[in-house]
Amino acid sequence: MLKTTGETPKSMTLQGLVTATHGRHAVVESTDGLRRLCHFRGKKNEVVVGDRVQWSVTEDAGIIEHVDERTNLFYRSDELRTKSFAANIDQIVVLVASDPDFSEEQIVRALISANSQNIPAFIALNKADLRDLFAKALDKLKHYPSMGYDLLPLTLTGESAVNPDFTDRLKNKISFIMGPSGAGKSTLINRLVPNAQAQTGEISKALQSGKHTTTATTLYWTDSERTSALIDSPGFQEFGLNHIEPTQLAHLMPDLEQFNTGCKFYNCTHLHEPGCVIRAELENGLISASRYKIYAQLFHQLSESPY
Questions:
Q1: Which range has the top average pLDDT, 179-188, 226-235, 274-283?
Q2: CA–CA dist 185, 235 (Å, integer)
Q3: Using CA atoms, how far apart are residues 61 and 39, in angstroms rounded to an integer?
Q4: pTM of the model
Q5: Which residue segments constitute the domains of the chain, with CATH numbers given?
Q6: Mean pLDDT for the stretch of residues 289-295
Q7: Does residue 6 contact residue 15 with C-beta atoms inside 8 Å?
């Protein structure tokens, strides 16, 4: 239930968890489990979903006074702006489906950003019931388990239970679910959080952010003890990496990082220099040609960025 006021004396500062944001408003959950509409102190909005905050009660709404130190911040950036998604998350779940087809580059971009913040991640592949398309999608992702990214199948159609290996991975963690439109994020949220639609409608009404689509990043608890949570966000089409230095790319891609020593030149870009170990392993078939192609494209794009 959302509330705009509370009974706590104004002189006290309360602990809270940001569960949704939109514009200059946020929904903050206090330790009693109630969610309240809050505003920010000052002009700048610096909070994101997952933030631990200190807030106080006023006559009409709560006021966020302070944001506690974060363990991480997951965000993307392009030439125009930086978009922060969530803070203090335990893992990222990249959800894609065998249909519609997905962009491997978008997966790579998301995993690079996660790695830059030392956030563990795994991939979930939905629509395992579409056997031919699923087999094709699996082949597209076959290199990722060897890099340390688990790849879990899902079937979210019908009444079948969600893969228990998948749900086990969510226990006692705050998980950020991301993926392109059509991958099944909303279906997954509704399967694991039966009252998610009601919560979304209530939050959207409070934030005046729309009721029909995911317009704001939102946190949902999947258990009554509030130890496991899913953070849902709008489907992404582009995932900018302008906050990443091009020379850091190879360090943030596990398959390249394992060979990222021994090049003839210490500042090797792994694009054209002689004596490059990564290009040699590419020729030997130990590095995926599609992954290397994405690396080269990203290196050129980030080298041209004014940032």
A1: 274-283
A2: 8
A3: 7
A4: 0.88
A5: 2-67 (2.40.50.140), 73-232 (3.40.50.300), 246-304 (1.10.40.50)
A6: 97
A7: no
